[in-house]
Amino acid sequence: MVIFAVLFIFIAVIFIQSKIYESFAAKGVEYAISVNINEVFEGDTVEVVEEVSNTMPFPIPWIKTELTVSGWLEFIGTQPDVKSGLRFVPSVFMLWGRRKCIRVWNVKCLKRGVYRFDDIRLYTSDLFGLCSTSSLIQPDIELVVLPCPYELKTLPLNDDLLWGTNPVRRFISDDPFAVSGVREYNDEPMSRIHWASTAKAGSLMVYNTEYTTHNHILYLINFQHGEFGGLSPAPDSYIETAIKAVAWHLNKAKASGIKTTIITNSTQEPEFSGLTTRYSSELECLARLKNECGSSFSLLMETIDIAPYTDIFIFTYFISKNIAKAADRFYRNGMSDGKNTVFYCNANIDDKNNIGYGKIVPLGRTCLKI
């Protein structure tokens, strides 16, 4: 009888504790996740902090969290578990009553993009695993990984491009800082007199200044694989290399105070125009681009008004006759006067035959594997 009584009490305890855990355990567990920085470059490491708290007075022996994130986020120190481009990162905790546990992950960002931590599963169980609960947590945390610049071996630009201004035949007024020599005085302000030349010539000489306009570079990024292949996207390796090359150009433009604009045919059109003092915003614009094609690149080129731009850099996987025709229109409508129309492309013989005006610069391809 004593054995049956002990067995009955043991079963009763198991039943009562399972009901207590079923009613209160899930409510007593609090979970939070954070990152120490929300914007980094490719290859950088961030800290992802998990914080699990037990607000109940009794212990919870088994708490499991499972993070579902992009495969391009490498959790250092864990075994790689990547399926269909997603990485699954489990964590197991055991907490006494009214205790808190903090776990810090070092996460390496392998590829540019925008990554979210909004699919986290939380599981709890009682002492004997008879009662378990699960819940979905969506903390709405965003991590922006900016593209690292890809240094180009050649920069086919005019010598004056990196100064941020271009001389033109005529503008509203001349640029007092663009001095090109001296000339004879012609009823001008005394402040423009070049006294050393005046002494040598024996007559009043003044500074000769140029008419200038500021550079404005347009970056066109083509996400299309081919002219007649529908809207299938170009290989990821080429797209990533093109974006890195644009990031390198933006770095040079920023240093020279040149205005820039980015236009793409990606499904997430970021068309961003602004002074390069907002350089980080333009990099974020590149980071948010999806490797998808939303429209024909040649049709996009036909709709662009090139009047505001002094130079056009085209990053494309191919050069069709339609793209070459649009580039010729750029040339005829003002790009011929010392300006640049540059194609960054691994051009084949057909591409070189199609292009009429504009330079072709080979653009390598990065190796992306996961």
Note the topology.
Blueprint: H1 2-28, E1 29-35, E2 39-41, E3 45-54, E4 60-70, E5 73-75, E6 82-83, E7 86-95, E8 99-109, E9 113-117, E10 120-125, E11 132-137, E12 141-146, E13 165-168, E14 179-184, H2 195-201, E15 205-209, E16 211-214, E17 216-221, H3 236-256, E18 259-264, E19 272-274, H4 279-287, H5 297-303, E20 311-315, H6 321-335, E21 340-344, H7 349-354, E22 359-361
Parallel strand pairs: 2-12, 17-18, 17-20, 20-21, 21-22
Antiparallel strand pairs: 1-3, 3-8, 4-7, 4-10, 5-8, 6-7, 9-12, 10-11, 13-16, 14-15, 18-19
Task: Quickly list its features.
370 residues, 25% helix, 2 domains, 7 helices, Immunoglobulin-like, Rossmann fold, alpha+beta, elongated, disordered C terminus, 5-stranded antiparallel beta sheet, single chain, 22 strands
Give Rg in angstroms: 31 Å
Number of helical segments? 7
Question: What string, H for helix and E for strand, traces the elements in order?
Answer: HEEEEEEEEEEEEEEHEEEHEEHHEHEHE
Strand order of the largest sheet: 19-18-17-20-21-22
Biggest β-sheet description: 6 strands, mixed
- Which class do the helix and strand fractions yield? alpha+beta
Task: Name the CATH class of the largest domain.
Answer: Alpha Beta
Shape: elongated
Strand content: 25-35%
Distance between the termini: 64 Å
* Tally of strands: 22
CATH architecture classification of the largest domain: 3-Layer(aba) Sandwich
The CATH topology label of the largest domain is Rossmann fold
Oligomer classification: single chain
Mean pLDDT: 76
Contiguous runs where pLDDT drops below 50 for at least 5 residues: 154-164, 168-173, 269-279, 365-370
Fraction in helix: 10-25%
Count the domains.
2
CATH superfamily of the largest domain: von Willebrand factor, type A domain
